[in-house]
Write a structure and sequence with these properties.
Blueprint: E1 2-10, H1 16-31, E2 42-47, E3 57-63, H2 66-74, H3 76-86, E4 89-98
Antiparallel strand pairs: 1-3, 1-4, 2-3
């Protein structure tokens, strides 16, 4: 099994409410993938509650294999969700490991 963990740091927003709204939109888009991407075994999206930390959104997903992860990466619904993130993303960190 492969665990895919991604952290996103978002660009600065004009106010906290706008940032929170965008983070909720990102979470909804990513969580919506659970019913759309067959190779996706589990998904969790966390929104940072600690203002002292650098990253804003954490994504944890699991797949049966690296091939399934690659299938997920190019799936049209994942690409669409990724576009929502990319428009406000400043930085991304990722690790994929075998469980």
């Amino acid at each position: 099994m492969i665990k895919h963990i991604v952290l996103f740091k978002l660009k600065n927003f004009s106010n906290a409410a706008a940032k929170a709204e965008k983070m909720d939109e990102i979470k909804a888009a990513l969580m919506g993938l659970a019913d759309k991407v067959e190779v996706l075994k589990s998904i969790e999206v966390g929104l940072n509650s600690n203002p002292n930390e650098k990253f804003d959104v954490a994504l944890t997903t699991t797949f049966n294999s690296m091939e399934d992860l690659y299938t997920y990466a190019v799936h049209p619904d994942h690409v669409a969700a990724g576009a929502i993130v990319r428009e406000v993303m400043e930085e991304r960190a990722c690790v994929d490991y075998e469980v």
